[in-house]
Amino acid sequence: MSSPDASAPRTARAPTAAFARLRESLRRRRGKRQRRISAILRAYSHRDRDIPTIGDLSEAFDARSFGAFFIVFGGVNLIPLPPGTSLVFGVPLLLFTIQLAIGRHRLWLPERVRNIRLKPETMSMLVVRLGPYLRKVERLARHRYWPEPEWVVLSAIGWFSFVMALLVAIPFPLTNMFPGVSIALAGVAITARDGLWLIASIVVGIASVLFLAGIYGAALFAFLQLF
């Protein structure tokens, strides 16, 4: 006769099993020498290709979609962009990060987002500006020091990156660059299962929060002194 608590361990193991399957999928693909994310972006930047959609990129990234989109949409904040553009990249980051936070092991994209077309000029700019950094990072990143249980770690990364994405989405000066870098580094950590890059992401994220708190705290203090 089964105990009343017999189903509890089975339920608790469900998230772990889902992430274990994802990890095994990633390992099998690494054995087949997956194309690097930088190579995929470079391929879609060629002008003789059809104009790609975000859905096309998601399919190309496959099981690495979370990490890859963290890298692309977070890293783009390193590029000087017109004021208010951070909101354009911050909102998709909120969509990506919240899904990882709540435990999804596959990225879901609304149909409207999947059908957004990315001009070759845009892809080319990404490759030119981010490509050199991304290729260096890809050479350095590897599976090491990755904490367990993985589903808890990935959920924590999702919530941390969600907070960073909120800062990216704020359309104020200086709010987007360092939180965006933190998200991009988290994407590298997720893709390679690299604990060192995860530590780097957390350090940059905490430093960016302290920096922004100091800047805007000082600005608020100066404003209050006027009255």
Q: Short summary of the structure?
A:
By secondary structure, this protein is mainly α. The protein contains ten helices and no strands.
Question: Would you mind describing this structure in some detail?
Answer:
The protein has 227 residues and is mainly α. 70% of the residues lie in helices and 0% in strands. It has ten helices and no strands. The protein has helices at 7-31, 37-44, 54-61, 65-75, 85-101, 111-114, 120-140, 150-169, 177-192, 195-224. Helix 4 runs antiparallel to helix 5 (85-101). The longest helix has 30 residues, at 195-224.
- Flag low-confidence runs: 1-9
What would you report as the Rg, rounded to the nearest angstrom? 19 Å
Oligomer: single chain
Q: Which whole number gives the mean pLDDT?
A: 82
* Main sheet specs: none
Overall SS class: mainly alpha
Helix content: over 70%
- Please report the total strand number as a whole number: 0
- Which of globular, elongated, flat, extended, rod-shaped describes the shape? globular
Order of helices and strands: HHHHHHHHHH
Beta-strand fraction estimate: under 5%
Q: End-to-end span in angstroms?
A: 75 Å
Count of individual helical segments: 10
